[in-house]
């Protein structure tokens, strides 16, 4: 007589707790981007040079108009980057991803980056900021171009990595908005000592620190994230 024995049913593993950075982040990021644009855009939309937050460098009367172009195309780049890195949109609507990608490159990063190169090389905030601006602009255009070329050549892994770097540089403006005021507050008491009473030396140091920190930090963090080891999957998923 056959003996019936109950086959133990393997217990379904409890769903792994998602780390905070794997939870839906697009909403909070979109709010931060919109807040940054709401702060950055208004002085330039009026097309009145008197409203500019960047003083006009001597001998460069067109500076303000290049700055306006940089800010407007930069806003297209920020909104484009937001759409491009949204995993749901990429999966669900690949055609939108492709078209938004073209807008990101050709109506965002490329014109904004070229104008950043021009105004950055003439920055009124001194030589240390000029070098940082020019380096940042070259890297911004370079990473984006490398990502665009990779997708044209069907190297999708390279495309993803270069575009992640490009988007990180696009969002580096957000960090720039934070590091500037922090450097200002920390260094202000040192005007009479470190800066020998010179408001110009103080202002140039604040601008240079925030300019250098914003793109170097985001690039380092992005590279660490790209190089991270893949998360261990539960045996059942494997
Ligand atoms: C890595 C990318 C970027 C570089 C290299 C760059 C470079 C520059 C440069 C050179 C200036 C003039 C200030 C100076 O002389 O130092 C500037 C100003 C500005 N940029 Fe960018 N930029 C970048 C990304 C963006 C993006 C994505 C936006 C988004 C809208 C943006 C918005 C602005 C604004 C609003 C100003 C005027 C400063 C202010 O009103 O506070 N930039 N940027």
Task: Describe the overall structure.
The chain has 238 residues and is an all-alpha fold. Helices cover 68% and strands 0% of the residues. It contains eight helices and no strands. It has helices at residues 26-40, 42-45, 63-84, 87-92, 94-121, 127-152, 156-187, 199-226. Helix 3 runs antiparallel to helix 5 (94-121) and helix 5 (94-121) runs antiparallel to helix 6. The longest helix is centred in the last third of the chain and has 32 residues, at 156-187. It is globular, with a radius of gyration of 23 Å. It starts with 25 loop residues before the first helix and ends in a 12-residue tail after the last helix. The structure holds protoporphyrin IX containing FE. Residues 40, 43, 53-54, 70-71, 74-75, 77-78, 116, 119-120, 123, 125, 129, 133, 136-137, 140, 169-170, 172-173, 215 line the site of protoporphyrin IX containing FE (HEM).
């Amino acid at each position: 007589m056959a003996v019936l024995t109950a086959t133990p049913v393997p217990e379904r593993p409890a769903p792994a707790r998602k780390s905070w950075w794997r939870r839906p982040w697009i909403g909070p990021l979109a709010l931060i981007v919109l807040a940054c644009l709401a702060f950055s855009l208004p002085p330039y939309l009026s097309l009145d040079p008197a409203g500019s937050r960047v003083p006009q460098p001597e001998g460069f009367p067109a500076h303000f108009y290049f700055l306006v172009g940089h800010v407007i195309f930069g806003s297209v780049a920020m909104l484009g980057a937001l759409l491009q890195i949204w995993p749901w949109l990429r999966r669900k609507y690949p055609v939108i991803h492709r078209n938004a990608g073209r807008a990101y490159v050709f109506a965002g990063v490329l014109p904004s980056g070229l104008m950043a190169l021009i105004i950055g090389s003439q920055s009124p905030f001194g030589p240390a900021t000029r070098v940082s601006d020019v380096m940042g602009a070259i890297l911004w255009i370079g990473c984006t171009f490398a990502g665009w070329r990779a997708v044209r050549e069907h190297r999708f892994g390279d495309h993803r990595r270069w575009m992640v770097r490009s988007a990180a540089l696009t969002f580096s403006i957000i960090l720039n908005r934070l590091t500037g005021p922090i450097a200002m507050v920390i260094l202000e008491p040192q005007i009479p000592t470190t800066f020998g009473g010179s408001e110009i030396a103080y202002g140039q140091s604040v601008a240079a620190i925030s300019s250098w920190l914003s793109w170097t930090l985001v690039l380092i963090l992005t590279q660490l994230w790209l190089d991270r080891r893949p998360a261990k999957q539960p045996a059942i998923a494997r």
